[in-house]
Predict the structure.
Amino acid sequence: MKESIYILTPRNEIEARIKRLQENMGHLTGAIILGSINLGYFSGTAQEGLIYIPREGLPTLMIKKSLERATEESALLPLPQRSLRSLKSDLDIPAGASIGLELDILPYNNYLRLAASLGEDVRLSDISQSIKHIRSAKSDYEISLIRRAAENLDTAIACVADHLREGMREIDLAAEVERSMRLSGHPGMVAFRRFNHSLPMGHLMAGGNAAYPSYVSSPTGGKGMSLFLPQGPGYSRIRRGEPVLVDYAGCYNGYLADETRIFCLGSPSPEMEQAHQAALQIEDAIARELAPGKSCRDIWNLGEAEGERLGYGDHL
C-alpha cells in the first residue's frame, strides 16, 4: 500500500481555477463562494469563511475559523473575516454590483443575512452552474488524484475475497473494506451536493437487501443500521449462493472514484447468472458509445434500450 500524505493544492492550480471562473462570469461583478467544497477548490482551504472572486483583479480570501490553519493550507493570503455588517466594504464591492452565489446549496437564512449586509442596491444571482461546469473539467493534477483514489479503492474491494464468510453480517464485511479504505487515505465520508443527502463510504448489501428501497439518490439503497440513515449495510447475515453487492466511493485528498463489484459464496442461481451476463452486455454497449459531448441522458437512454432488448426492461 502506498503511503498517504496530506496534499496542499499547488498555486498554479488555484490561479487557473480562479481565472476560468472569471472568464465565465458574464455580466457579474464578482462571486462570493461560501460552500466548503467550492471554497477549498478555489482557495486551497476548506476552513470556515469565504472567497470573493471579482470578474477582474485578485481574489479576497476571508476566514472566520481557523485563520491559522488556512494560512498554512492556502496558496492565497487569508484575511480574518470580521462581521457581515462590514463585508461590502471589506470586499470593496461597488454600489449596483451584481454578485453570484451558490444558490443550489446556500441555506435561505444565510442568503437573507448576506443580502441584508450587501444592501438593496446589490443584485444577487446564481453562479452554481458555472462552478459545476468548471469543476467538471479536470486538470492533470486532479486526474492523478482520481487515479490514486481508484487504486486505493480497488485494493480495498479486493479484500472482500479474503474476508467473505457465510453467516457474517453485512456490516462486518463492510468494516473490513472500510478499514482498508481509511488506511489508504479515505476521510471516512463522501460529500454529496444535494439537500438532505448524507452518504456513508459506500454500500455493501447481500441478496434482496441490495434492492431494498431507500430515499438516497442512487441505484442502490439498503436497509442500513438506523432509520435516520436508512441506507447501506445492515445487520443481515450473508448466505451462500446469494450475490453480495459492494459499491464504494474511493476518496483521496478530496477526489473520488466509484467502483462496484459483485461477489458470491459458491455459485449463484442460473437466473442470477443470466441477469449478470445481461448487465455486462449493457455495460459494454454503454462503454462503446461513451465520448466527449454525450449527455448523461443519452447514455442512460442507450442503456435502457439495451436492457429492453435483452428482456430486462422492468428491472432497470
User: Anything to note?
Assistant: Residues 270-289 form the longest helix (20 residues). The chain is about 40% helix and 15% strand. The first strand starts at residue 30 and ends at 33.
